[in-house]
Structures are given as C-alpha cells and as structure tokens.
Amino acid sequence: xxxxxxxxxxxxxxxxxxxxxxxxxxxxxxxxxxxxxxxxxxxxxxxxxxxxxxxxxxxxxxxxxxxxxxxxxxxxxxxxxxxxxxxxxxxxxxxxxxxxxxxxxxxxxxxxxxxxxxxxxxxxxxxxxxxxxxxxxxxxxxxxxxxxxxxxxxxxxxxxxxxxxxxxxxxxxxxxxxxxxxxxxxxxxxxxxxxxxxxxxxxxxxxxxxxxxxxxxxxxxxxxxxxxxxxxxxxxxxxxxxxxxxxxxxxxxxxxxxxxxxxxxxxxxxxxxxxxxxxxxxxxxxxxxxxxxxxxxxxxxxxxxxxxxxxxxxxxxxxxxxxxxxxxxxxxxxxxxxxxxxxxxxxxxxxxxxxxxxxxxxxxxxxxxxxxxxxxxxxxxxxxxxxxxxxxxxxxxxxxxxxxxxxxxxxxxxxxxxxxxxxxxxxxxxxxxxxxxxxxxxxxxxxxxxxxxxxxxxxxxxxxxxxxxxxxxxxxxxxxxxxxxxxxxxxxxxxxxxxxxxxxxxxxx
Amino acid sequence: xxxxxxxxxxxxxxxxxxxxxxxxxxxxxxxxxxxxxxxxxxxxxxxxxxxxxxxxxxxxxxxxxxxxxxxxxxxxxxxxxxxxxxxxxxxxxxxxxxxxxxxxxxxxxxxxxxxxxxxxxxxxxxxxxxxxxxxxxxxxxxxxxxxxxxxxxxxxxxxxxxxxxxxxxxxxxxxxxxxxxxxxxxxxxxxxxxxxxxxxxxxxxxxxxxxxxxxxxxxxxxxxxxxxxxxxxxxxxxxxxxxxxxxxxxxxxxxxxxxxxxxxxxxxxxxxxxxxxxxxxxxxxxxxxxxxxxxxxxxxxxxxxxxxxxxxxxxxxxxxxxxxxxxxxxxxxx
Amino acid sequence: xxxxxxxxxxxxxxxxxxxxxxxxxxxxxxxxxxxxxxxxxxxxxxxxxxxxxxxxxxxxxxxxxxxxxxxxxxxxxxxxxxxxxxxxxxxxxxxxxxxxxxxxxxxxxxxxxxxxxxxxxxxxxxxxxxxxxxxxxxxxxxxxxxxxxxxxxxxxxxxxxxxxxxxxxxxxxxxxxxxxxxxxxxxxxxxxxxxxxxxxxxxxxxxxxxxxxxxxxxxxxxxxxxxxxxxxxxxxxxxxxxxxxxxxxxxxxxxxxxxxxxxxxxxxxxxxxxxxxxxxxxxxxxxxxxxxxxxxxxxxxxxxxxxxxxxxxxxxxxxxxxxxxxxxxxxxxx
Amino acid sequence: xxxxxxxxxxxxxxxxxxxxxxxxxxxxxxxxxxxxxxxxxxxxxxxxxxxxxxxxxxxxxxxxxxxxxxxxxxxxxxxxxxxxxxxxxxxxxxxxxxxxxxxxxxxxxxxxxxxxxxxxxxxxxxxxxxxxxxxxxxxxxxxxxxxxxxxxxxxxxxxxxxxxxxxxxxxxxxxxxxxxxxxxxxxxxxxxxxxxxxxxxxxxxxxxxxxxxxxxxxxxxxxxxxxxxxxxxxxxxxxxxxxxxxxxxxxxxxxxxxxxxxxxxxxxxxxxxxxxxxxxxxxxxxxxx
Lengths: 509, 334, 334, 289
Ligand SMILES: Nc1ncnc2c1ncn2[C@@H]1O[C@H](COP(=O)(O)OP(=O)(O)OP(=O)(O)O)[C@@H](O)[C@H]1O
Ligand SMILES: Nc1ncnc2c1ncn2[C@@H]1O[C@H](COP(=O)(O)OP(=O)(O)OP(=O)(O)O)[C@@H](O)[C@H]1O
Ligand SMILES: [Mg+2]
Ligand SMILES: [Mg+2]
What we know:
By secondary structure, chain A is of the alpha/beta class.
C-alpha cells in the first residue's frame, strides 16, 4: 500500500535553533497516526512543513508516492492536506461561518451568498453536534469554541490528510468525545489523520500508530494498541517517569489564606463563596463556560465585580485591578497565554521578569540585567524550557515552552496565593509531572493554590479538595480522590455546548 | 458585550447585532448634540442654505475619508489620499483642458489615475512588504511632485468644459425639487458611501478587507492570495480618491496642483472619530460619514459664531477628544 | 547567520545579539550610500560647513523623532509633537522675553511645559481610554491654538536674553577645537539620543515601554500599574519635545507661534524609516537618528545639486520607499 | 566659463505669485547670462525650513543670494555668514530687518491693502458690514495686508464695520468654506476682502456657490482671478508686480556683482485692477497667469 504521505530526511533551522534534524514521518490512508514528543521536539514544525507554512531546508515529501513540492498553504490544500494549527489562527472580527469559509465563500455572481455561507457552516456544526450560531463573531467565543470553529474549518475542506495539532488542549471531555466520533467517521472514509497531543490517554482511544520525536529527530514508530504508555513516554523523554498520586496533607488546622464571599456578576458569577487554606491545593472542576475563569479573573481584579467580598488572611481587601490583587498577594496565571500571558514580542528573560521588575530595579531606577539573566536562566533550567537562550523572543518558542515561561513569571513573583488557570495546557507529560511536583512543593511551603483545569485526571491528581462549578454557581465541594461521576454530576446541571445524548443527535440529522 | 456561553439563544445574538447598530447611533448622537448646541447658539445655523453649505463642505473630505476607511480596515493607512486627489484633478485638467477631450474621458481618466496609483501603493505594500505608512508617505511626496510637474506648477482651469462645474456644484435634486437644491457633490458623497458600504459588506473584496485587518497571517494560512486582495483594496481606495479629485476640481473649477497635503490628516481623523480602529478589522462607512460631518459641523458652527480663529482650533481639539470619550463611556456602560 | 542548533554555545548567543546590531548597521549603510552618491555628485556636499548644516538641520526633527519613538514603541502615536514643540518655545518666550526671567527658568519652563502636556496626553490615553491618535490629534489642535493665544499671534524674540541663541547655535566643541565648530544643537541631539537610549534599555520605564507595545493586557495581568507607566511614557516624550522647542526657538532666535503643524509627519517618518514598527513593541533610538539623518541628507543633497523643487519632492518620495525596501530585502536575506 | 549662480530663496514655491516671481527672475537670468535657482518652503509658517534652504544654498557657494525672509531675525546668522564670504544678498518681497541686504525689491503691502480698503468703501457706499478672509495670521504679508486694510477702514470709514477676520491658510477650498459661513452668519454683509490669490479665489467661489451679491476685492492675479474680475464675480483686485520683483532682484544681484550702485529700496509698485482697466497696457503688463 502506497502511503498517503511520506516525509524523509527533513531538516529545518531557524536562526539559532535547529528545529528538525533528518525527521521522518509516514501516514497511511484511513489511519490515525499520533505524533508525540516533548515540548519543542519539532512536531508542529514538521507538520507546518507538510501543510506549506514553512518549507524544509532539505528532505523529501512524497504524496501518493509522488514527490511533491508544497510551497504554500494553497498548494497543500490542492494536494488535499489541511491542518488545525496549535495556536489558533482565526480572524477575530469575522463570524464563525466567515472564518470557516475564508477564501471559499459561496457566491451569487459578484456577491457573497451569506445565507448559503451560514447554511453550510450550520451543516458542519450539526455534523459535529455543535450548538453554535454561525453568525457570532469568533472574538466573543471561548477558546474552546474557537477551537471547535478551527476543527469545523479543517473539516470543511474535506481533505484526505487532516493534521490536528493539539486539538483537544482547550476542550473538555464531552467535546473530546465528540471530536473522536468525528475522527472515527473520517477514518472510515479513508482520511489519514495526524494527531498531536500531550494527553497520553487519548492515544489508546484513537491512535493506530504512534511516531515519537525527540529534539527534532525521529525516534521511532510503534503500533498504538500494543505498546505500553510507559514505553512511549520513555521514547519521548529518554527515561521513565514515576506516576505518583496526590498525598493529601492535613490542612484543616492551617489558617485561611483566601476567602471569597458572595461573589456575583450578572449570570456569569452567581453567589460564589469559598475559602482556601495555607498549604492547600483547591481544584476547580467544571465544564466549558462554567465560570471558573470568570471567578478567577474577578478575584484577580481583571474584570469587575457587582457584589461580594474578598478576604486575604482574614482581612477584607479591595481589589479593583490586577495591581491591587498582586499587592494583596494573589497571582493569576491566565488560561490564554497568547492574549493575556505573554508579551510575545519580548524575550524570555523579560517575560519571566515582567511581574517582578521592581525586584530588579537598582538605584536610580536602573535595571540590573545581570541578575535578571541569572534568574531567567535558573527558571529555564528548572522548568526545562527549550530555548536557544534567555534572549530568544517568546513568540518563537514552541507552545508548551511558552506556557512554561508564563509559569516561571508567576513562580518568580512568589505570591502567597496563586491561581493557576489551565496551567498545563499544551505541556508535555514530562514537564507536566515537573509542574505537579512544583505545585505540591509550593503548597508544602504554605502557599494557598487554586488550580483550574478541564482535565479531570489533573484535578484529581493535584487537588486536596475539589470545587465544582456549573453555570456560574459553585455547585459543591468534594474531597480529594472523589469518583469522577460525582464531579460530573455536580458539573452537569445543564448540558454542555456539545450535545452528547442520542435523541438529540437523531433530531439533528 | 455579553460573555455568557450559551450561543443558540436568538435573543442574545440579536442583542449583539443590534448593539452594533446602537453604537453607530451613539456616535450619531454626538453629532446631534453638536447640531443642537449650535442651532441654539445661532439662528443662522439651521437654515437650509447653511445645512447645505455644511454638507457641501463635507463632500470632499467625506469621500477621501471613505477611501481612507477601506485601507484602515485592512490595518493599513493611506497618507497619500490628499495629494493623490490633487493628482487626479490635474490629470482631469490635462485631459480636458490641455487636450480638449470630452467630459467623460476626463472623469474616467481621473478615476483611472486614482486606481493606478492605488495599484502601485498596494503593490509596494503587498509585494515589497514596505509598511503602508512608508509606502503611502512616499507616494504622497511622489504624487505631490508629479502634480506640479504635469501641471507646470500652474492651476489648470476647466473653462472650456462647461459641464465640469456641474459635477459638484450643479443640483440634480434641485432641478426636480427647487426647494431642496442639494448640490451634486453631496449626492456623490452619499452615493460613494452607499456603494462602498455595499462592497465592504457584500463582496469578497469587502470580506477580505476585514479579514486582512483582523488577522492577515490567518488569512494567508487559509490559502487566500493575500497580496492580490490587498492590492485590490488599495486600488479601490485609489479610485474613490479619484472621485474626490473630480469633486474638488469641480468645486474650484480648476485643478490646483499645490493643494492636497494635509488633507490626509482630516480624512484619517474622520475615520477614527467615526469609530474605525487604526489597528484594523473593524470599521464602517456610516461611522466615517458621521466623523466627517462632526468635523465640518464643528468648523462651520464655530465660524458662524465668529469665535476667534485661534480659539476655534482649541475648541475643535477639545471637542474631538470629548466626542470620542463620550462614545467610549457610553459603550462601556452598555 | 549561523544555523547550528546547539543552544548553549556562547558564540551563538553573540551571533544573535550582533545580528541586531547588524540590522542597524544596514539601515546605516542606506544612509552611507546616499552620502557617497551625493559627495560624488557635488564637491560642495562633503565640506565641513555643509555637513554641519545637515546635522544642524537634523537636530530639531531628530529630537522630535526621538520623542515620537518612545510613544510609538508603546504602540501609540503622538501627533502633537510638532505643535507642542511650538508651545514650549512660546512658553520660553513668555518667561524670558515677556517676563524677563533668567535663562535657566526659561529652559526649565519649556521642558516642564512639554512634560505637563505629555502628562495630559498620557492621562487622556490611559485613564479615559481615548485612542492615542485622537488624544494627540486633539492635543495638537489645542496646543496650536494656545500657542497663538499666548503669544498674541506674534513671534516672540529673545533679543533680551543674549545667551539664548547659544543653546542651539553656539559651539562648545568649536570653542575647544576651532576646526570642528559643531553647533550645540547637534550636541544636544546626540545627548538626548544617548539619554533616551539608556532610559529605554536600562530602566524599568523603558522596559515597560516595550512591554506595553508588545502586549498591554499581559502587562496589566502581571499586576503592573499600566496606566501610570503609560502616562510616564507620554510625559517623558513631552519633556523631550520641550527640548526640541528650545532648539528651534534658539535657532530662530524667536518663538514662531504658527510653526509646528506638519512637523509630526516628518518625525514619525524618521521613526518608521529607522525601523521602528508602528504596531509597537520594538524600535531603537539609533534607528530613528539614522532615519532623521536620511531625511535631512536627502533634502540637503538634492538642494546642493540644484534639482528643481518639484522633482526634489518626487525623488524624496522614491528614495524613502527604496531605502526602507532595501532594508527589508537585506533583513530577509539574513 | 561657468555661468554665475544667483540663488533665490523665496517664501513659497507652489503659488502663482511665487511662480511669477520665478518667471521674472528666470527672465532676468536669461538676459543677463546668470543661472538662477529658486526655492521656497511649502507655506509661510515654515521659518526653519527656509533657514535650512538658505544654509544649503550657501553651501553651494553661489555668486549672490536673493532672499525673501519669512522672519528676518532668524536668518541673521546665515546672512552674516554670506556677508563674511563676500556673497552679496538682495532682499525681495518684504524687507529684511538688517543692514546686510544691499537693497530690497518689494511691494508696500500695507499701502496696497489700504488701497483695497478705499476701493471696498467706494463700492459699498462707505457704510455697512464687511469681512476679511486672510491667508495667514502670523506671516509678514498676512499681517501687513490685514492690518493695512483694517486700519484704513477704522481711520477713514467710521460707518463700515468689519464683522469677521478669518484665516484660510491661502487654501482655496478652506477659504471657500470660511466665506460661506461668514455669508450665512451675516446675511447683510456688503463686502469681503481676500488677502492673497488663494483667499480671493476662495471668497469668489463661496460667493458664487451661495449666489450672493457681496462685493469682493481680491489680491494678486493669476488666470483664475483675472477671469473672475473679467466676469464681475470679483469686483476688483490689487496686484503686485511679482514678475518685476523677480526681475529686479536678479538684476540688482548682477549689478552688485559688477560693482554697480544700488538704491535702498526698489519699489516694484502695486495696482488696482477691475474689468474696466484690465486691458490697459500698463496694468496688463503686471498681471500674470
Ligand atoms: N519561527 C521560529 N523561529 C525560531 N524558532 C522556532 C520557530 N518555530 C519553532 N521554533 C523552535 O523550533 C523548535 C520546535 O518547535 P515546535 O513548535 O515544532 O515544537 P513542538 O514539538 O510542536 O512543541 P509543543 O509540544 O510545545 O507544541 C522549538 O525549539 C522552537 O522554539
Ligand atoms: N475577558 C473576557 N472577555 C470576554 N469574555 C470572557 C473573558 N473572560 C472570560 N470570558 C468568557 O466568559 C465565559 C465564562 O467562561 P469561563 O472561561 O469563565 O469558564 P471556565 O469554567 O473557565 O471554562 P473554560 O474551561 O472554557 O475556561 C466564557 O464564555 C469566556 O469566554
Ligand atoms: Mg507544537
Ligand atoms: Mg477557563
């Protein structure tokens, strides 16, 4: 059988970085081929070459056994290759439908046929069981829904090769299930799918084969079903990882570090009250749009509040801006690193120092760059941030490494209360366990930590206590190690955006 | 802006959409406030003749501002609109007066000159990747010089083309309804506004105009020929500027080669006052029209009140800031 | 450019850093090409007196452009630099001539006037959230009007303050090395460039200037008081403009109240030619200095060659586009 | 042998008045066998640009310099430099407050504007409201013409009231809009004075667009203004003799170079013209297109 795509000997260098060294990859039709590797291993770069975003320095690409030169996204599309990018590439001011069909708008003569456009988009959404109005501007959508729009866009090309670069990083379980149903269907139609993810459990569920990369090089290709996860992880990181579970310390006697009472704002936040003790990790679970991010942003002063009070160490504080919050000792790592986390044009060093410049300001306001460099390099080592130097621009880092930079920023700021919103989004498994260790260590030092995560296993593994939200309400607290069903019950007092129940599906088709 | 995630409730969507309309209405209400204040302050202000004078005074800047709007929505900027306008007027003069061509040739020639210049600017931006600010700054100077060269640094008069002054100064409406002698220049402004609104909202070119300003890289990654559309946008803007050139030449019955520089600032100001963001992706022709009207109402009203000129300038500056600030306040409250 | 991926070799780091320097060197080489061409074309061009004239002609626009650079790096824009310069000059005139204050009071007064105006612009931008284009357009008009009001629409001469003309026209260097009578204005330009370079690269204010232009929201969510720093940036720019006001007043031995509008375009052009992006987050004072020099070398060289004035304009436009394009080409090749 | 260069730095370039000065200078250059260069800033506020032009001209080592100062004081150091280098300086258009220029070829703008005031008074019957649309609030010519006109009215015509003085920068379109608002705000207005070519044409345009019968007195000439005077849209205008100014400036420079004597002032004169006297040979000679 001639492979759909075969890439061999691919080299690619960026200034200061050799991203790929003789990488290779093969995709058969009708298979889901997972591409695995640590952050910065070169997965996205390899797939960008296949989809015409970059051109390889050397190497050969065969499509249907014939040599192909892919000099741009258009050529890739013509060859039947489409891609869902890791970093969302949407036109914020356009609607969902307009985004999906950009460049291929249905027309009536000279004019755009907006009705047909929306109809076609609606049809795609329906086939994905996605309840989304095609006429909404994507700007007003959550990242998760924006991700769904990207998926819809990729599907609309009806390609033979579909590359998905971390499509589930922003999705919750229901949405992931729906995506997998779609993948199964495409697979049955003979579409070849490249699937990049850091979520190991997904491999067993959908992948047929797994190719592992490390440091831009090809490590090996193994069948997914027969290979133990541990083996794949070892191929990725070059060592075995131990799989610890949370050790829940007894914090009942510790003083309360942060308490919120009756936080409210419209329908987004409804009467939310909770408390976190020093040394405690409070996990927040919930479905997409449950309001966890809203609560965190409101506590942090990033968005206004209508009612409620916030107490730090038992005293009431007024927080009107992030500056107030940080002064009160609260740090917040945003779920959207690109828009809210990184100064993308600045280098790694300055991004890490961004929240703590004052500590590097010497006499007469002059910055101590040497100290900044040392600190930055310390974090680069501690978090294994893959970057040619601390003066590399943050936007040139791989997605996962960007996330680590933002984490470093808050670690450096060293707040007694830390809110992490989706801290491991896009982070590889090795680094993830590093970050878990770090969070545990921070808690052990007496910091109060809130972790918001859409990955239930993550919440379960980290939390000393679990808060569950739904529709802006805190629907309950659960102890560490609570069964997943209990969490889901509290989290699903209303249906998620994706309709998973069978009757609905029938009604839609 | 509502942030609630339920997306399929029509009421919400309707809310979002009508809030857009409401925004425009608000900028409009800023204009209304000005109108009310001035008409209370001077009985001469709301006379038909003065209203027509204000509209007539808006026509050239309005058309230029519409051209600037198109480019600004892509996230670019066009500094050459002022001198290009003059260049187009001079081309009309050369064709009609120096070469005795018939009127339609002059009209088409001016618009074509604008289009070609826009094509060149667009090519410099899209193909040579020169930032729009520099590309159009260069074009501004080139066109300014060329206008002087071509015209021999002398105004060209249209005395041999009797119909020419009718383009802006005649009144088709007035010949039907004598009580309402709306000059053709104003008619043309509204026509251009309608056509460009239509192009922006209903055609592929319009769609890509917004898409480019929203996220050019994403458009490129979608396999769209970004360069071609971008050049198209500048060319469209150029042809609109050609119309402005005809309007000003018709009003002055001459092509004045020295005029034009500085007009770009008024045009861009109208665009920004009208709510179009300089970072691209959003903007409306209606907003720009209102912005241009605010500028001419201010100028006219302060003159009618015989405010000393140096104070006119101060007050204009203040009101521009206040008008935009008021708009921001209201939007925040929504 | 080395492409080897080993990441911790110091040589590589040096390579990356020097590539930044290399970029600047390239813009610089564009300037060199101009210098070579003009000196081949005319024996008068490279004479000491003419070189000094070019530098002197750069001083005012150079200082203005440095002020504009600071604001542009934050992703903003300052249209008021031209008229603010005039306003500061008028303030100096009022203090020194109309009120007979001693020279230092006039100097400080002018700089303070610039700082306060910058504070106001910054506050309008940061607190009222008015887009910088509008805020500074408004300030441009307000200051233009106020200059006329305060001066009584008449130039104010500094004949009673004998030292005043020395600020720009005297020559400290010349008094030491008579063969090199570099005017103080040029010295001040370089001094301002060095100080602002230092502030931008070594102080917290400078760091936030870049950070704001890179991603303001991320800075805010890092707990930084974004508003305060932004106001600081505009105030710093304002005080630099104050220095420009002193320079021009000293050169003309008078505060000319009508001057100034239009100067913002030259200043911004110098910034952009110097490689600073209007979308913020990056830029260098050195680049701006080279941009300003390119503009004055062009103007001077074409005059020395007695090119007809209308063609001077055309050629200037062409060369500005070409200079930036050449720079882009070379960077792409790196 | 290379022709001697006479470098003229004027106050403007693109306007017809300055182009006529240039034409006169070129004519003299051709007759006297010297090279004439001619440069000027975009508008009359750009004092420092003019200084830069003067500096660049000096770097060329011209034989002589003709200079129309936007601000005489500002140019003093450079003029001194010219004097030290032995380059003769001739002032034109308006005087330079300095003893460096050997002579000045000029128009008395104050007197010219006073003549405009007399003509205006005559045409409106020495009573009623009038207005001024000036080209500039701060430049020498702007101030002289405005003040010459306003002061003459104040002194000689107590029954005439000047209701508005506004400035259109010499931009025709802006002057048109200003005129229209003045006319609409003052329906009983009797006359308007436009202080230069752009202002005058703008005033006449505004009058035409509103179908007004207001009396218009202009300044300067040019094809459009001549046409308007001819058609009666403009009742009359003052013209200077810019061709003469340019011619005399270059001629004086050559005289100076050849060691000849020069008077302190070369008054090139001004004239009032209207539809009745335009074709007089004396007037026609000073009108320009
Ligand atoms: N445009 C670029 N310029 C410079 N370096 C780049 C560029 N794009 C990628 N890199 C570098 O190439 C390497 C590979 O990056 P890539 O994005 O392919 O990693 P990845 O495997 O997708 O990682 P992740 O799992 O974090 O997304 C990284 O070291 C990254 O910093
Ligand atoms: N700054 C903001 N501007 C506009 N909308 C916002 C902003 N921040 C959050 N939202 C929206 O508020 C809604 C509430 O979702 P929120 O992100 O709080 O839920 P969540 O439980 O954190 O879910 P998720 O898993 O998607 O992060 C979402 O639609 C989100 O996009
Ligand atoms: Mg990646
Ligand atoms: Mg969230």
